[in-house]
Amino acid sequence: MSEPPRQVRALERKYREDIRRLSQYWPAESVTLEEASRGRLEVRLHGGLRHRFSREEVDRLLGEVPEFLWRSIRIPLLLRYEVAGTVAYYRVLGDRWQRRLAEIMLRGEYSYEGLERMRVSEFQKILKKYRSLIFVGLSV
């Protein structure tokens, strides 16, 4: 089998480097809503930087999430942008608690399983309310 052309190898190297660079801005930790309610409004990113949540957005979310769930639900909400054929959507990353968080952010209520994915229009709706509480990755 022959080796790929030099241009292809160069593009692959550039792509891998871009992915590595972007991953430095992905959260390395999360915070429970209970911790956020007591003032913990920052998380560490993989590159060592810190990300600060908006106090106003955290307070808005605390008003929507029942207090008995504060110990289980964590922020930030992690999403991955995906495309299947001609349909684009955002997949909720993480467990059932993350899916419940997404559903609460979008609809103000939650189900047992939560929200597994959302349409672009739904993502735009929650982004307007919770810009600092959401991280989005790309499907690779």
Average pLDDT works out at 91
The rough form would be described as: globular
* Portion in helices: 25-40%
Number of structurally distinct domains: 1
Our Rg estimate from Cα atoms comes to 18 Å
Q: Indicate the proportion of strand residues.
A: 15-25%
How would you sum up this structure, described in words?
This protein has one domain. Strand 5 (77-84) and strand 6 form a beta hairpin. It has helices at residues 6-23, 33-37, 55-64, 96-107, 120-129, and strands at residues 31-32, 42-44, 50-52, 74-75, 77-84, 87-92, 117-119, 134-138. It is built from five helices and eight strands; from the N terminus they run H-E-H-E-E-H-E-E-E-H-E-H-E. By secondary structure, it is α+β, with helices and mostly antiparallel strands. The model has no long low-confidence stretch (mean pLDDT 91). The chain has a four-stranded mixed sheet with strand order 7-6-5-8.
